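This week, work through this protein record:
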Amino acid sequence: MSAHKPNIILIILDTLRSDRILSEYDGRELTPTLNSLLKDSIYFENCICNHTWTVPSHISMLTGLYSTQNALFSGERKRLYKGIPFLPEILKSNGYKTLCYSENPWINKKTGLSNGFDVVSNNWKTTTYILQKLKFYRNSILLINIINYFFQIFGKESIIRYLWSQIQFFLEKLLKLITIRLYWRKILLNREDSINKVEKFRNILTKNADNEPIFIMFNIMATHNPYIIPIKYYRLFNLKLKEIKSMKNFFLNPVQYGLITNLFNDPLPENQLLLIEKFYNACVSYTDLILRKILNVIEKTQFPNKTHIIITSDHGEHLGTKSDHYFWNHAVFQSVFEPLIKVPLLLYNNKSKKGMKINDQVQLKDIYYTILDMAGIDSKDNSLIQQISTNKFPEIIYGDHIKDKDNILEICTKFGTDIRKVNLKKVLSDISFLRTNNYKFIKYESNIEELYDLIEDPNEYDNLIKKKTQVANDLRKRLSHLKKIINNKSNLESQITTNEKTVLKNTINKLKWNKI
């Protein structure tokens, strides 16, 4: 029976903005592979992610719940609660082989995002991971950790431990700066080519490609800061060594430089903005080449069954321009604006060449229901397939940005940020939003509110909270009602089960999800 189930491949192009699809830069098509798929795909022009960074967004995609609901049980936003039915585990219990190729270090056992996969192939791409490969940096950090252990054991006086913590932070910061100065060429110019890594993953794929259906999740990090890719792909965008060198500190210290824009809304210099966009676009183009390799590997594997391919991103990215409200990257404390929450989404079926463009808004968390529907496990109204069939798309979409307030204050303090110049009411407040096809209502925990007309004002410059009071009142009430449902733990407890294979399928079929 399982042999007749389709293969399902979820490709997450991490941090890819929606507006890069069908775009050109300096006369060059940025995403030719993606563009070529559009004529045979269902393309959602207005897909909204419910959360603004990797872990909560992946939890939402792979559970069908808001990350906020997961946090009711796990107690935090950086870890999946084990009792929540998790997509790879559900598929595995229904006869699927489950594989994961990940360049994102957040997909691991600690966060729970690698749960349920038979095989996980890691090719992590973060700056910290790259630095840890350098012997000088690795040994120096080891020495600092040994000293830290000594102070934890013998430094009983709190003042001593506090002073050491400040010294430790300074030493780690200095070490990073020294390492970057000494080894920046090695860090920036000797990047492993993901295209080669995907080709090697093909061997794993071939071993697992038999009569059993297969679920594969790819996470590709090429468009994620620090925008480091193999130098030959920079050259396609005429990026020279001097430009790479001029941006080395900026890209290798994203937290420090991000504070400039994300706390103060201070515009970056024009020449820097131009280079940021150029580097990001080069990474987008490289991502498209990786996608082409993934599709090529899938084609050559010659799966016997029908194959569904879902291509999306977990969140967008700010690039520091006016339309980004002068924010840069996605670790932003004051934004749920469109560049950050609007992501590409394509559904492609290798046995059906039916192209369709959907303008109505859809949400990323419904990928969970869509995959269960594709697999023939469960069919809910939340499935994108059912939404298309009935022409009923979400009237409202909820999302939030829950912050680690202690961490934000610690970062500000350690980097010497003048807190008095920061709008702490916004920076430290959790953000919720409610989006319709026409409007977006944003509410900060500190009761700051914003309302934008997405049709007349797509860049969200003009806050209409005091001008369109009737619309604001309606969305305010709906947001309040929805949050009560989302945050009601007792409503969810009947839906939570242990991950025992014998009961998982029956439990999933009995779920009564809120259609929100």
Remarks:
- Residues 294 and 344 are 17 Å apart (CA to CA).
- The chain has two domains: 2-123+192-397, 133-190.
